[in-house]
Amino acid sequence: MKAAEKKEAIDFIFKKVMIYYTYLSNKYKGIPFYDQMKEIAEGAVERGNLTSLRYISKDLDGWMKDMEEEDVTKIRDLLIQNLGAAVFSDEKKETKTLDRIRKKGAIKNSKEYAIVLSRVESICMDEARKSEVEGLNTLLSDFLHMVDTKKADI
Which superkingdom is the protein from (predicted)? Predict the structure, then answer.
């Protein structure tokens, strides 16, 4: 990645993290964790550490799965308003990957396993998606069996 592209990615992800920070720290005042998260993100920017920022961003995206629907909607609106629809490009990639895994009927590596597992975790409490969860769990089980029998590597 070229230096200019890296700086652009760092700036974009930092803005995303700050939108989360602003929303969460205003809603849940007095929780020092949010300030610590902000300090870590600022340090990553100062050091030019794109990888750390990506991890923070992914964690925050994961948190949205457990937030109240009202908070999710507000944060999504803020992200789109300030950063555009590109903010959800990773989500679209994961959806395409998940569709491809379903179509071929098998998980081929640990990255795909993580994507399927994340999907199961996000929908498993929804009774209306029980059959989807069961199908995805079968894929997860099959992959673990393949790893156990040395027919696939993690």
Answer: Bacteria
Q: What is the DSSP string of 41-101?
A: HHHHHHHT-HHHHHHHHHHHHHHHTTS-HHHHHHHHHHHHHHH-GGGGHHHHHHHHHHHHH
Q: Report the predicted TM-score, pTM, of the whole model to 2 decimal places.
A: 0.61
Is 127 or 20 the better-scoring residue by pLDDT? 20
Q: Is residue 154 part of a domain?
A: no
Last residue of a domain, one of 68, 83, 98: 83
Long-range contacts of 130-137 (CB under 8 A, 24+ apart): 135/102
> Hey, is 36 helix, strand or coil?
helix
* DSSP code, position 28: S
Which residues constitute the domain of residue 37?
3-83
